[in-house]
Amino acid sequence: MERQIILSASHVKKSFRAGMKNKVMAVNDVSLEILKGETLALVGESGCGKSTLARLLMRMIKADSGSIFFEDQEITGMSERELRPFRREMQMVFQDPASSLDPRMKIRDIIAEPLLAWHVYDSKEKTDERILELLDMVDLKEDCLDRYPHQFSGGQRQRIGIARAIAVKPKLLVCDESVSALDVCVQAQILNLLKTLKNQMGLTCLFISHDLAVVSFIADRVCVMKDGQICEMAPAEQIYKNPGHEYTRYLLASVPQVIDF
Ligand SMILES: Nc1ncnc2c1ncn2[C@@H]1O[C@H](COP(=O)(O)OP(=O)(O)OP(=O)(O)O)[C@@H](O)[C@H]1O
Ligand SMILES: [Mg+2]
Predict the structure, then answer these.
(1) Order of strands, sheet of 90-93, starting from the edge strand that comes earlier in the sequence
(2) In what order do the strands lie in the sheet with 5-18?
(3) Which atom of ligand 1 is nearest to the CA of 225?
């Protein structure tokens, strides 16, 4: 099968001011490619620059230097107006579904919002039909529609966040610590759901996590970040069986092992 690149970054840098004189290089000369249909995991310790890199790739913030391409179009310096069509293609699932869902909106309206904003359907009936389809895809029942976010569990709220993110059939889904706030059982359910959706929709996913155990379950390739730089990028199996970088071995050693009685 031909290798298609959805998103690529070349020598991307981003620094932030830290106090009067200092700067922190949050992303320091990063180059990577995300291939169509793959789940690329971005792992590394807190503060290593994962979220900043994701925001750069999605053009939520601007890079200081380097270039970013979505498919064959350079988006590095595009204005908000030029970026608009790309916004639909890249959707995000956030870490905390409680704060990323508007507490005053019913689930029906939360999922309808992107469909209406992008004028996806020309009638209310078709929009309603799609909302039901999305609910089914994330394993929620129809009676959820007239309830508010606070009436759901964390896992259910994350399902709603996922339904909202995939509503407009994006090409790239970015999940930034999307299961980190959930307990282990619910984490597994949401990871399974993401896997199923990936197969059903041919989704490409950039999956960010500090947790290598979570990543091992979902990633095709793993990109290990440290201090704003990529130190290793390889197929998931290789990362776990034969890590090439000392830092990857250090991260692997810190994954809790199930006790062998
Ligand atoms: N808007 C900002 N202003 C100043 N510094 C920032 C800003 N955003 C990020 N940083 C700094 O950039 C570095 C990378 O932060 P980033 O949020 O990308 O890390 P992360 O890998 O996502 O961490 P975590 O796993 O805790 O989410 C950190 O040192 C952080 O303090
Ligand atoms: Mg982060």
Answers:
(1) 90-93, 172-176, 204-209, 39-43, 221-226, 229-235
(2) 22-35, 5-18, 65-70, 73-74
(3) 21
Question: In sequence order, which ranges of 97-229 are alpha helices (DSSP H)?
Answer: 97-100, 107-117, 124-137, 154-166, 184-201, 212-218
The pLDDT confidence band at residue 11, using thresholds 50, 70 and 90, is very high
Instruction: For residue 202, give the DSSP letter.
Output: T
pTM equals: 0.93
- pLDDT for the residue 32: 97
Tell me which residue has its CA closest to atom 30 in ligand 1. Answer: 47
- Report which DSSP code applies to 4: -
Q: For residue 51, give the ligand 1 atom closest to its CA.
A: 22
User: Which ligand is closest to the CA of 52, given by its number?
Assistant: 1
pLDDT tens figures, 112-154: 999 999 999 999 999 999 999 999 999 999 999 999 999 999 9
Q: What pLDDT digit, counting tens, does each position of 65-80 carry?
A: 999 999 999 999 999 9
For ligand 1, pick from 52, 64, 229 the residue to mutate: most ligand atoms within 8 Å of CB: 52
pLDDT above 90 for 185: no
Per the CB < 8 A criterion, the answer to whether 180 and 95 are in contact is yes
Q: Hey, whose CA ends up nearest to atom 5 of ligand 1?
A: 16
Tell me how far the alpha carbon of residue 146 lies from the centroid of ligand 2, in angstroms.
32
The closest-lying atom of ligand 1 relative to the alpha carbon of residue 44 is 21
**Structural domains present in the chain:** 5-96+172-253 (3.40.50.300)
Residues with CB under 6 A from ligand 1: 16, 24, 26, 44, 46-52, 210
- Number of the ligand closest to the Cα of 55: 1
Residue of 169, 174, 167, 177 lying closest to 214 (CA atoms): 177
